[in-house]
Design goal:
Layout (H helix, E strand, L loop, with lengths): L8 H13 L1 H14 L12 H22 L2 H5 L3 H4 L14
Helix pairs in contact: 1-2, 2-3
């Protein structure tokens, strides 16, 4: 899905919170956490570093969503937020991702 405009950090944060904060979003997030969050088991695949990396990637998505849900718009205004925003790396743009 493409969006015809750039999505700013505050709008993106609020979109995550609206999506995953809704009753249906919580059902989906709970399912994803159990399926890919490695809540009940380790991400380690003995003897298979690639499998471990894949599992860590799955888990990383849930960690990312969790960070988005725990942030506030005020957090975005803090000087340190620019360095630790879970949704924006230097040179990364979310334009057209949705």
């Amino acid at each position: 899905m493409q969006v015809s405009r750039e999505v700013g950090p505050e709008e993106l944060l609020l979109a995550y919170q609206e999506c995953f904060g809704s009753p249906v979003g919580k059902v989906v997030l709970t399912h994803l956490a159990h399926k890919f969050g490695f809540i009940e088991k380790s991400t380690n695949v003995p003897g298979d570093p690639y499998g471990t990396h894949i599992n860590e990637g799955h888990r990383g998505v849930l960690v990312y969503i969790g960070k988005m849900l725990s942030m506030t718009t005020d957090d975005l205004k803090q000087p340190k937020a620019a360095e630790s925003e879970p949704f924006q790396q230097k040179g990364e743009s979310h334009e057209g991702e949705f």
